[in-house]
Specification:
Blueprint lengths: L19 E2 L2 E2 H8 L5 H17 L1 H8 L5 E4 L9 H17 L2 E4 L13 H11 L19 H6 L2 H11 L3 E4 L3 H14 L14 H10 L4 E4 L6 E6 L3 E6 L7 E3 L7 H11 L15 H9 L1
Parallel strand pairs: 3-4
Antiparallel strand pairs: 1-2, 5-6, 6-9, 7-8
Helix pairs in contact: 2-4, 10-11
This protein binds glutamic acid.
The site of glutamic acid (GLU) has 7 residues, from loops.
Length: about 300
């Protein structure tokens, strides 16, 4: 895809099935934007938005948290980029450019079952078409690379952090068979209690652990969440959001194929890459208490 022709047709922006963008159907939003969004017009709009970002009081609050802004756009290559992805990319890019910060692209491809061939190229093509240049990431490199999570996995980065969490007593091997988890979930549904892992493997004795590991040689690793108390998330848009720990289970951080889950890889990389602000879709807000506990660990 070249950027030379201002009116070149854009890459395929899939809208996905999730549907809503600030109360507007994203299908409607994309339909309305398609004729408008030529790269040239997008550049003009972008410049206006950069100056608005510079003047906004929200931005002032955000920047007070840190001096050097480093933000990231972290798409998963599970399909064509949709309007929601582009919106996240745009907000991160705008903030980086308005604050003289760094805009990073990181490809989150740890869910191997959902990978779509060619999706990574489409993601990068979409950014190029919109003229959203990135300072660190695939193709351009940077001091915190690699910027593709499967390459980081191959380097043992997530395994190392998982081993450390286990050694610190903050995570544990779970040997439960998927059939057992399935039966447990169904029983929870019937009983009307909130679904989640029942922590059977959390406090196994050494003997039990030894016995279980002989039966299931491919355990997953789960993170120990607090059993009670509130977890507070400071969200710039929503303010302080409170989550009850009792409703959050010990989630999986490393799968049996030794790939990390989104939660672990995302937090480890945000930490190692020095990310100062996270701007992403609202659907990720329920994951924030888990991430906060991982950061604290
Ligand atoms: N890989 C996640 C996604 O594609 C990123 C979410 C985040 O920015 O933390 O939605």
């Amino acid at each position: 895809m070249t950027l030379s022709s201002a009116d070149a047709p854009g890459p395929n922006l899939d809208i996905g099935s999730k549907g809503k963008l600030d109360g507007i159907s994203s299908v409607t939003a994309l339909g309305a934007l398609r004729p408008f969004l030529t790269p040239h017009r997008f550049s003009l709009l972008r410049n206006v938005l950069v100056s608005l970002f510079r003047d906004s009081s929200t931005t002032d609050n955000m920047v007070a948290m840190s001096e050097t802004v480093r933000v990231r756009y972290a798409p998963s290559p599970t399909g064509e980029p949709h309007l929601g992805n582009i919106r996240s990319a745009l907000f991160n890019w705008l903030y980086a450019r308005a604050m003289g910060g760094t805009f990073i692209v990181r490809i989150e491809d740890t869910d191997r079952t959902r990978l779509v061939e060619g999706a990574q190229d489409s993601i990068l093509d979409a950014l190029r078409w919109l003229n959203l240049d990135w300072d660190e990431g695939p193709e351009v490199g940077g001091a915190f690379g690699p910027y593709v999570q499967s390459e980081r996995q191959a380097q043992g980065i997530y395994q190392e952090h998982t081993d450390w969490l286990i050694a610190e007593g903050r995570a544990y091997y779970c040997y439960c068979h998927p059939d057992r988890l399935d039966t447990m979930r169904k029983a929870q549904q019937v009983a009307g209690i909130s679904p989640g892992y029942d922590r059977r493997c959390r406090d196994l004795s050494d003997d039990d652990r030894q016995r279980s590991s002989e039966v299931n040689r491919k355990p997953v690793v789960r993170f120990k969440m607090p059993l009670e108390g509130d977890i507070l998330v400071n969200d710039v848009v929503r303010g302080e959001v409170k989550f009850d720990s009792a409703l959050l289970d010990d989630f999986v951080i490393l799968k049996s194929d030794s790939f990390p889950t989104y939660h672990l890889a995302n937090v480890v990389d945000d930490h190692l890459m020095g990310i100062t602000h996270v701007m992403r879709a609202e659907e990720w807000l329920p994951s924030a208490p888990r991430h906060i506990k991982l950061y604290e660990a």
